[in-house]
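Here is one record:
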Amino acid sequence: MGTMHYPLLCALIFLPETPAFPLQPRPEAWSSIDHEKVKGYLDTFFPILSDTQNLSVEERIKEMQKFFHLTVTGKLDKETEEIMKMPRCGFPDTGDYQTFPGSPRWKKRHLTYKIRSYTRDLPRWKVDDAIRRALKVWSDVTPLRFHRVYRRHADIKITFARHEHGDWSPFDGRGKVLAHAFPPGEGIGGDAHFDDDEKWSDVNQDVNLFLVAAHEFGHSLGLAHSNVRGALMYPLYSYQNPQTFRLPADDWRGIQRLYGKKSSNS
């Protein structure tokens, strides 16, 4: 079988504290540097498709504002600027679907996972526990079951790595890309990678591993982003208490569309 190439699914990014997108009154008044930053953001998260290739930057900002339920102005106003600076996943936000085009999904209900490497930021047992609980988020509402393996092949392989790590999507050091994952499929499909230059934690500081992993595993199972604020698959990262976390309705409806509901026998 030939090598299968997948798009980068998720890359949570923390932008610098200094304003990366200075507020300006009109898009046409941006300096070339600011214009490039805004255009770079739009190209990454709201890429030009065949039916949007003739849109101006102002029209593309309107598309972004519609997705995030902002006031549609086409201008880089304060609320739009704040959204652009928030930590988030790197998969594009275009499209109204909760699943990827073609709805890729696993054809089996019992999936295996393997932790191939660890971060030194947490004891191994805490990493194991965060990964187990992140997968349980999805098995609690579907017939899916996850079983950890240590030596044999696994459907979902979990890796902590730095910079180039063999998937054509190198990490860039602390502070930007946190993690990414790939949709169901052969080879690298379903795998989740975490940037080991980040500072991982199990509490409300630095980067909470459970929350990031739960989001990434949604991609590993076939979910794209939701535009429902508060959903786990919403592209902007925000902290929630892992001890009281409950999968929002938008997410369980999306995953049940792929795999069905959890039955008393599953």
Observations:
- Residues 1-9, 11-33 have pLDDT under 50 and may be disordered.
